[in-house]
Sequence to fold (105 residues):
Amino acid sequence: MVGLNSDSSCGNSGPDRPVFPEAERAEVLASFFFVDHVVIFDEMTPLELVLAVRPHILVKGGDYRRDTIVGREEVERTAGGWLSSIRLAGLSSSNIIKKISGDGG
Fold:
């Protein structure tokens, strides 16, 4: 299961976000063979979803530090764990926006 920020909960990411609407982002995620469900959430953090689903493993992007992962403590309390995904150098929505707008990237 993948928790996906709704368009309205992407406000912290900047004025040009999200680049793609939630329905398109959900469709891309759902196309991966290892994803069974995509749940779009409106809250600014996934804490309510984590508490409802009680995952065994919480995966966050490589730019998150352990102490900033919302829901990590709740997952660890139930003998679960967390993983940080690999961050690919130069691959970010900020760089894509710069490239498209002609500002570099």
